[in-house]
Amino acid sequence: MELSSYLSLSTSTSVVVDKSPDGEFLRIDFNMSFPALSCEFASVDVSDVLGTNRLNITKTIRKFSIDSHLRPIGPEFLSGATTHLIKHDDDGEEDYGEGSLVLNGQNFERAAQEHDILVVNFYAPWCYWSKRLKPSWEKVAMIMRERHDPEADGRILLGKVDCTVQVDLCRRHHVQGYPSIRVFRKGSDVKNEHGHHEHESYYGDRDTDTLVKFMESLVSAIPLGNQTLALEDKSSNKTQNIKRLAPPSGGCRIEGFVRVKKVPGNLIVSAHSGSHSFDSSKMNMSHVITHLSFGKRISPRVMTDVQRIIPYLGASHDRLSGKSYINQDEASNSMVTIEHYLQVVKTEVRSPNEHTLLEEYEYTAHSSLIQSHDIPVAKFHFELSPMQVLITENPRSFSHFLTNICAIIGGVFTVAGILDSILHNTLRLIKKVELGKNF
After folding, report:
1. Could you give the C-alpha distances from 333 to 162, 250, 282, 369, 426, in angstroms and in order?
2. Rounded distance, CA 327 to CA 60, Å?
3. Which stretches make up the Thioredoxin domain (predicted)?
4. Which regions of the chain carry the CATH code 2.60.470?
């Protein structure tokens, strides 16, 4: 028993003021799935009480389009955030009428099959950016009609879809921001095994000159009368730097990490764009949290070894793991912000020589759904405790073990001597009594 006690490790727990050095950053790892938020506009933002405000973090974030079962579709979605202001034509431009074709659920597929390239402006009449785009879009449509007659040429056609009227058509093409300019190429916009379209999005400037150059670059890749080149690789296109694939689905899985200061702050996931508008009544920020933790990554092996000594450690390290915040009723989803209030406590395990063996952060979580007057978001408000739990190992010294062994051995001999003396005296007394009886 003494040997077992010597080999075992005891600990002492105390609560002290957090000893983290000034200016140290805290890492937040997460993996979340948003079934109704497109990767095209999904943005991860960070803010805190010290005035830090970082929008649309992309360096340490990865996005994957997902289906209705939260399974990723295709490779990583490269958002390629625009770093400059989108250029528009000046106000007061001449009205060129309705140069683009009005598309709906009945004529959309026919137009896509009759022309090598169909460029569509998905817009909303109430949208500020759609209103700014409209004059230049109609002007470009008239110019392209004059240069490339849709009936005689057939290589390109410009159309438009009013998403307030053609709701199903816009939903089918996963349009969440207005205006969204999509490029459909004949033969390449086919449905894959998941039932999703494959086409491109345009994120460049929206002035007339830039749009005309972009349209002409699309037409130049398809010589008149040769429709097979519509399927060629577009990597040689000069406008490749402003073109990206449109999201193949309406959902997005966001994973990665951010570093924040050790002060109260917010991690916010929302739809964000500097040149698009969003209909807040149709935004659904329901999500499933696969992983959310604070601090450095701890390998399962290290955590298992520590839990053998301290069983309660790590119980709340990933408290929200596997939690779902999904509303099936679309009517109840409108303009709802989902907030999570997290209180984080640091736990540190130290060796007797003050060497840190393990540093982990556990947290409590309280969640709520709040009606919002602005664009709905998913907000994680975190607040770090000024106190930390300090667990120190207390190994026993060998001298203490040796002293106890000597004490045990000495005690055994002493007790054995006492028992031997009692037994010997008892036997002598019995013999004396027996001898007295014989006489």
Report:
1. 23, 15, 8, 10, 91
2. 29
3. 75-220
4. 1-77+247-394
* Candidates 127, 163, 170, 252; catalytic one: 127
Measured CA distances, 136 to 142, 158, 201 (Å): 10, 12, 18
Please list the residues that pair with 380 across neighbouring strands: 267, 340
For 117, the token pair is: 């390239």
Q: Return residue ranges of the chain for CATH 3.40.30.10.
A: 101-218
Q: What are phi and psi of 55, to 5 degrees?
A: -105, 145
170 is catalytic: no
End-to-end CA distance of the chain: 54
Pairing of the two strands 356-371 and 336-350: antiparallel
Half-sphere exposure of 53 (CA within 13 A, CB side): 2
pTM tops 0.85, yes or no = no
CATH architecture of 1-77+247-394: Sandwich (2.60)
**Where does 101-218 sit in CATH, by number?**
3.40.30.10
Cα 17 to chain centroid distance, Å, stands at: 31
Of 158, 157, 153, the residue nearest 224 (C-alpha): 153
Given a contact cutoff of 8 angstroms between Cβ atoms, the answer to whether 118 and 78 are in contact is: no
Taking only the tens place, the pLDDT of each residue in 397-424 is 788 888 888 999 999 999 999 999 999 9
pLDDT tens-place string over residues 260-305: 999 999 999 999 888 899 988 888 899 999 999 998 887 777 777 7
